[in-house]
Design a protein that fits this description.
Structural class of chain A: mainly beta
Shape of chain B: globular
Number of strands of chain B: 12
Radius of gyration of chain A: 13 Å
Radius of gyration of chain B: 14 Å
Oligomer: heterodimer
Largest sheet of chain A: 7 strands, mixed
Distance between the termini of chain A: 36 Å
């Protein structure tokens, strides 16, 4: 089955610790994305990557870092510099044509709680 | 100013009836795309339907249709014959085209919580 997997589903972190969220896709998509969702809010873009070894900041990149060493993988690190990291994190991918119709498909999400 | 506005925080509908979820958008780009996603309580975002700014006809996908009124900048989602499984959050999103090329960013509204009553 083709799809996007995120792990873990729930993650707890102590203040001051870095934590890495996993995102893997087997859809052969070029583009991958990370979004953050807070209660009662829509999604906000953290980072995106159009191709391997390249990524761009989104609207709320401060306190986050990413890497794109493989086409299938786009891990997100939430650093201790992120002041309010408790949120629901969603990873997405798309074919990456950049056209208006390039639909993003989402993984199941990771809920991060800072204790 | 918000680029995507969903004015209905919550909506209720009886099973088997139709429901319209509102979405208005703000852009000065002539080329843009509008998307609707469904988010059940499990959290995953499920793509429902797409409408391009140059599309002449309203998009339809099964029980989902999009009432696209370009002059009013609205892209309302219509769900026909509601089912209990339609209970979820629904998000409207827009992609605008950057000058000189593509734009990968989606801008989301705050969503509408739909509850289908038996």
């Amino acid at each position: 089955d083709g799809g996007i997997t995120q792990s873990p589903k729930y993650l707890f972190r102590k203040e001051g610790q870095n934590v890495t969220l996993s995102c893997e896709q087997n859809l052969n998509h070029d583009a991958m994305y990370w979004y953050r969702q807070d209660p009662g809010q829509g999604l906000r873009l953290i980072y995106y990557s159009q191709i391997v070894n390249d990524f761009q900041k989104g609207d709320i990149a401060e306190g986050y870092s990413v890497s794109r060493e493989k086409k299938e993988s786009f891990p997100l690190t939430v650093t201790s510099a992120q002041k309010n990291p408790t949120a629901f994190y969603l990873c997405a991918s798309s074919i990456g044509t950049g056209s208006m119709t390039d639909t993003q498909y989402f993984g199941p999400g990771t809920r991060l709680t800072v204790l | 100013a918000q680029k995507i506005t969903q004015t209905q925080p919550g909506m209720f509908v009886q099973e088997k009836e139709a429901v319209t979820l509102d979405c208005t958008y703000d852009t000065s780009d002539p080329s843009y795309g509008l998307f609707w996603y469904k988010q059940p309580s499990s959290g995953e975002m499920i793509f429902l339907i797409y409408q391009g700014s140059y599309d002449q006809q309203n998009a339809t996908e099964g029980r989902y249709s999009l009432n696209f009124q370009k002059a009013r900048k609205s892209a309302n989602l219509v769900i026909s014959a509601s089912q209990l499984g339609d209970s979820a959050m629904y998000f409207c999103a827009m992609r605008e085209e950057h000058r000189g090329g593509s734009n990968y960013k989606l801008t989301f509204g705050k969503g509408t919580l739909l509850t289908v009553n038996p």
